[in-house]
Amino acid sequence: MIKFDNKFTYITLGIFFLLELVLAVIIQLVSGVYYGISTLTSVSIACIVVGIFYKQTDKHLLTIIALITTVCADLFLCGLVKFHNDRVVAMVFFCVTQICYFYRLYLNQEYTSTKRVHLALRVAIPAAAIIATLVVLKDNADTLAIISMFYFANLLLNVVYAFIQFKRAPLFAIGLLCFALCDVLIGFAVLDEFMTIPPFIKAINDIDLNLAWIFYVPSQTLIATDIAINEND
Fold it and tell me: N or C: which end of the chain has fewer CB within 10 A?
C-alpha cells in the first residue's frame, strides 16, 4: 500500500483547490467549447485526485467509479460528445454515480434492520417520484423526465444518509448536498420547458451567473478531498 505523508497530502490538495478555484471562475466567464473544456477539466481533476490517493477498499473503488461516470455524464452535457439524445445518456451515467454512492453508504450501515429499511426506501421513494412525475406532467412526461426523477430521488436519499453518517465522512456529506443544490438549480431551468414556472424560480433562472456550477465545482472537490484526507478509512 502506498503511504502519503502529510506534506504530500497538503501540497496535492493545495494545488487541487487552486486549480478548482481558477476553473470555477473561468466557467463563469466563458462559453461554447471553452466552457465545455473548463467544466470537464474541473470534474476530471477531482477524479484524478481520487486516483492519486486510491486504495483497495470499497469506499475508494465506489467513489472513483462514481467520479468516472460523472465525467462521462459531463462529456455529453457539456457538448464535447455528440449523441442523438445527449441528456438522456448523461442522466443514465449520473444514475450510476448515485447508485455507487448509495452502495457506499449502504455498506457503512452496521445493522441488518437498518439496511433493510434503506433498501425499502430505495425502492419506494424513486417509484413514488416516477409516479408523481407521470401524474403531474401527463403527456409531457418523457424518458428524460422519468430518468431524472429516479436520479434525483436517489441523490436526495444519498444526502439524507450521508448526513446520518456525517461524523464518518463530513466532507462527503457536504459534497453531496452541494451536488443536490446544483441539480435543484438545473431542475428549475428544465421545468421551464415543461410548465409555467412560479415567479421566484423564473427570477433565479434569470440571474446572470451559472449558479449550478457554483455548487457543482465544490461538490466534486469535497467528495475527492474526503478520499484524500481519510487515508485510514
Answer: N
